[in-house]
Amino acid sequence: MTKALQELANSQELSAKSHAMQFVEVHDPDELHGHAYDVVLQVVDSTRLEESLMLTPHIIDEHQKIVLAIGRYDLLLETDHSLNIPKLEQLIGVPTCRVSVRLNYGLANCLGIVENTIHKPVSTAHPIYHLRDQGDEDTYRAYVHGILTETLTHAKDDQHQTRLERIDKVLTNPWLGFPIMMAVLYFVFWCTFTLGAYPQEWIESGIDLMADWMRGLMDPSWWSSLLIDGVLQGVGAVLAFLPNIIILFFFISLMEDSGYMAREAFIMDTIMHRVGLHGRSFIPMLMGFGCNVPAIMAAKDIQNPKDRVLTMLMVPFMSCSARLPVYMLFVDTFFERHKALVMISLYAIGICLSVLFAIIMKRTKWFRQDNDDTVNELPEFRLPKARNTAAHIWERVVDYLQKICTVILWASIIIWALEYFPTQDLNDLEHSYLASIGQFVSPLLEPLGFDWKMSVCLLTGLPAKEAIVSTLAILYGGDISAAGFTPLTAFSFMLFVLLYFPCVATIATLRREAGKVWAWFTVFHSLALAWLVSFIVYQIGMLL
Questions:
Q1: Which residue has the higher pLDDT, 123 or 307?
Q2: H/E element holding 41?
Q3: CA angle at residue 272 from 534 to 176, to 5 degrees?
């Protein structure tokens, strides 16, 4: 909207005065404090009138000249709603016009009103000056609600709603929204496994062929073992999941660009708000499904410091893309008939435990407070653009490949060296340095059903969770089905991977944004929770 008005102001049809107009977007009334603008043009979204108009009293309260532009007015009319503009202008006490950039309607008239308002003095008799002395945000909301009650005419029924509005009503329905969301996620994971299985197989076959070719080309030595058993097998095991990553983020990009991801946040916000959580905390949590580091940084936008820190502590419960290759490896091997269902259960367990964690923390002295913030506004549905989708996928692919070429590569080399020395024989693992390390920590993890090799894998996952896959490939030769794992130990192992802190980078980001106390708290509580949940699941499973 701002860009369109600026282009119109720069056209030759307008006077020299409006040719010099400059437009700036303002989303917070504090941005106006201390500034004396010639006029403030507030563009109001006609499809979210009450929320959009909540900014108007604050602008008036700053003694600014103001013009209201009711934007996207054509969409309001499509729903058989109507707004009495003259009466609205009279009740709210500021010049008002209606515009539609999509139809190129009302822009010139709007700028004409802006020009006239510049030369008028600021009114000192506006009713808002009396309201501010007796109330707060609730008073302003009641003021706006009263004005809309007098000026907004609602449709008598739903038959005149647009198709997208009818779809939106179903997707955000309190009873239907959550089942639909779960069905969408099931479909996404089903496609991720089903469509990704073919290219994943091709990559794995290609790696095996390359390994056989290199073995025939090179004499047996520590150098050939490093290249084949360490680098090629370790890195290749993680690289094989690249097609699944691409497919998953293709669907995530579609959901984000279309606006459905915001509707998922809206559905979950209702649930979270009922248990006393911050209404906007679910947005960083959704971002955590991609990567926990930017998700923690996104939580900085939450104004309340207690809610901000608590949201940051909740983010590590979200299954980031680094955990995805581990899940896929075990789910594909041990849960072939219920792949999508097991994947959804892991994501759901993470969300449920994060909510339970927040409920408990909300009752401590550090986070106890009242919270009334909710997510009220939803973006309109849009057709995703191929360029944006491709850019999102490319960003994730580049990030994945960079991690393979750095963290995963070095982790594979270190694991191979600990496995190869001092015996210099990969068939004699029991006397290797790696076995010594694994056997040292193994007693702590044996109650969870893990042997020393599984324990070592969890250790290598500290810098990056993808390293677990490369470690499994090196230790078990790429075949975990004959390595002592059972469906029960596999699920227990995945739960541990889900719940202990994602990576060192996440803890470093937490330390920077929330402080070292909360960073160390996350390290210890996540390890304890991972152990406890895996222990309970494994022991109950053994009884059954």
A1: 307
A2: strand 40-45
A3: 100
Token pair in block for residue 326? 């581990």
Q: How far is CA 251 from the centre of its chain?
A: 13
Is the CB of residue 263 less than 8 Å from the CB of residue 358? no
**pLDDT, position 34:** 67
Domains and CATH numbers, the chain: 2-153 (3.40.50), 179-369+388-543 (no CATH)
pLDDT the model gives residue 343: 93
135-176: pLDDT as tens digits: 567 777 788 888 888 888 766 545 545 566 677 778 878 788
> Of 66, 43, 60, 57, whose CA–CA distance to 117 is shortest?
66
Helical H runs in 20-101? Answer: 49-53, 55-61, 73-78, 85-92
What gap in Å lies between CA 213 and CA 200, rounded to an integer?
A: 20
Residue with tokens 């004699």, as numbered in its chain: 428
Instruction: List residues bridging with 96 in a β-sheet.
Output: 68
Interior angle at CA 323, CA 420 and CA 198, nearest 5: 85
What's CA 139's distance to the chain center, in Å? Answer: 34
Residue among 359, 68, 409, 364 at smallest CA distance from 230:
409
Q: Can you give the pTM of this predicted structure?
A: 0.67
